[in-house]
Amino acid sequence: MSKVKNAELREKSAAELSQTLDQYKRELLDLKVQQVAGTAAAKGGKIREVRKNIARVLTTITQQARADARAKYAGKKHIPKDLRVKKTRALRRALNKHELSRKTVRQQKKDIHFPAREFAVKA
Fold this sequence. Notes:
By secondary structure, this protein is mostly helical. The protein is 64% helix and 0% strand. The protein is rod-shaped, with a radius of gyration of 29 Å.
């Protein structure tokens, strides 16, 4: 078999993907048996290609599962940590716009009683 395309995998359903995965795993098992037996049919490049195909299928399965989970939790208040946006630790802990704009009672009183001065002549 040749390299499987990711676009082709994304079009398949979960059941088809698991079937494809089983097929590649069987093929890998056969190739490894041939390699141990020492027959000329087993080539290292072919084993590598099948392993990479298995990785592609597993990646597609994971991506589809995460997309389904994202759709399930869309618009909800609490989202599982593995679905949240990673960003950086500092950005995750930073204040949001609403929190930044809030003022203490004391600061509000200061703003009311001591407004910014307006001068007729600029320095």
